[in-house]
Amino acid sequence: MTIARVRQPLVFIVSGPSGSGKSTLVAKMLEVPGTMFSISSTTRPPRATESPGKWYDFISEEEFDRMANQGEFLEYARVFGKHWYGTPRRSLEDAQRMGVDLVLEIDVQGAEQVKRKLTDAVAIFILPPASDELERRLRARGLDSEGAIKRRLDRARQEIQHYTEYDFLVVNDDVERAGREVQAITVGARCLRSHLSENARKILESFGG
């Protein structure tokens, strides 16, 4: 009797400095059929434009500590020494159950943790066109104080030093082109030999492979 293999989700990691436009490009990736977004947990309060359960679950520090202590996160980190962010393991379990691939929008600390645990994960780093353009975008959002903008720019310089740890770099100087590129990466990664579809496995087996 042949035992059916359980399809493992392909995990996409998307990182980039605040203001690089990674959330917009993640939305483009989610237009590709068979993908789902991993909703992160965070201890920071929601902004006025944010709805709980869309991009983030907003939880207390006590609940975050409980989840971390019980091993319920794929990764977690403290950002700016202030609020905690984490990726619940249940997102991976849900993706496996649904037979879809999982998209994570996480920082370089979290990406390193996930890559250690899921070595086949595909990591994409989003680059802004230039440092001055990144500063312009951050100021145009009108969300941060002068001190916060400076911290974000300093952090961006640190994060970009990790670009060699990623499989793909996408420059977000034109959102339509960059969107097509991340979609192409999403589709192309599914053809990697390390992530054979069940259909491809059956074809190979029919040839004795």
- Provide the residue-averaged pLDDT: 90
What is the number of helices?
8
**CATH fold topology of one domain:** Rossmann fold
End-to-end Cα distance: 18 Å
- Unreliably modeled segments: none
The CATH H-level superfamily of one domain is P-loop containing nucleotide triphosphate hydrolases
Question: Any overview of this molecule?
Answer:
A hairpin with a 3-residue loop joins strand 5 (73-79) and strand 6. This protein is 41% helix and 20% strand. By secondary structure, it is of the alpha/beta class. It has helices at 22-29, 61-69, 90-98, 108-117, 131-141, 146-160, 175-189, 198-206, and strands spanning 11-15, 35-37, 40-42, 56-58, 73-79, 83-88, 101-105, 122-127, 168-171. The protein is globular, with a radius of gyration of 18 Å. It has a domain at 11-38 and 100-206: Rossmann fold.
